[in-house]
Design a protein that fits this description.
Elements (H helix, E strand, L loop, with lengths): L5 E7 L13 H13 L4 E6 L23 H12 L2 E6 L8 H7 L4 H4 L4 E6 L7 H14 L8 E3 L2 H4 L12 H26 L21
Parallel strand pairs: 1-2, 1-3, 3-4, 4-5
Length: about 220
């Protein structure tokens, strides 16, 4: 990855602790695996688990609070999102769509926080499809959020067999094949991340993402 130090956030898009699926919190394994694969001397990676966040039960986005008035957990996460260079979105599939837990979490923050940074889509399931249908919905959503997803996506069917609870590969997993598959997406993400980071240093091409979210798509005056 050259000499560019990267900050990566892995968003875990599940709050489900019950079964099915079996084992429970299957997404936690996938998120841990992604973090393990991303770790390196030039990469800072953090997994954001919605269950660890003390967000208000009544939805109110970060940008709707007056300066300095947002809940502490929300403000800290907003700062981490702003500082990150790219994002890995880990989601199960709900009704052929992305996880409502992931959408709820991301919707707390303005697109200006994510803008002009790439993302990678990782979906999983306990069954044979690997959450692939959710990725179609996620591509549109993440593009609108501002963190354009790279073209290579990751689908993990039977994730309980691929990963152990700590995110290491299962005993029967073809490690070389899986690492090659994951590497295709992560290499794309880092290539775009370094390019975007260098370009952001020269300034952003538009002020649209810095405006009030309700006016972002309105004509500029």
């Amino acid at each position: 990855m050259g000499q560019t130090h990267m900050k990566v956030i892995v968003f875990l898009g599940s709050v489900r602790e019950s079964t099915p699926p079996r084992p429970a919190r299957l997404g936690a394994r996938v998120a841990a695996a992604m973090a393990r694969l991303l770790e390196g001397a030039e990469v800072d990676v953090e997994v954001i688990d919605p269950l660890d966040l003390d967000l208000p039960t009544v939805f109110k986005p970060h940008f709707a609070y007056s300066a300095g008035k947002a809940p502490v957990a929300m403000q800290r996460l907003a700062e981490k999102i702003e500082a990150a260079d790219c994002y890995v979105m880990v989601s199960p599939e709900y009704n052929h769509s992305m996880s409502p837990a992931l959408a709820n979490l991301l919707n707390h923050f303005a697109s200006s926080s994510f803008a002009f940074k790439p993302s990678a889509i990782v979906t999983y399931s306990a069954g044979q499809w690997g959450g692939a249908r959710a990725s179609v919905n996620m591509r549109t959503y993440l593009s609108e959020l501002g963190c354009l997803p790279v073209s290579a996506m990751i689908y993990i069917p039977h994730a309980q067999d691929v990963f152990e609870e700590d995110g290491s590969f299962g005993a029967d997993a073809d490690v070389a094949e899986w690492e090659s598959y994951f590497g295709r997406t992560l290499e794309q993400m880092f290539w775009w991340s370094k390019a975007a980071k260098a370009q952001r240093a020269h300034g952003l091409p538009t002020k649209a993402f810095g405006r009030d979210p309700s006016q972002r798509n309105a004509p500029l005056k």
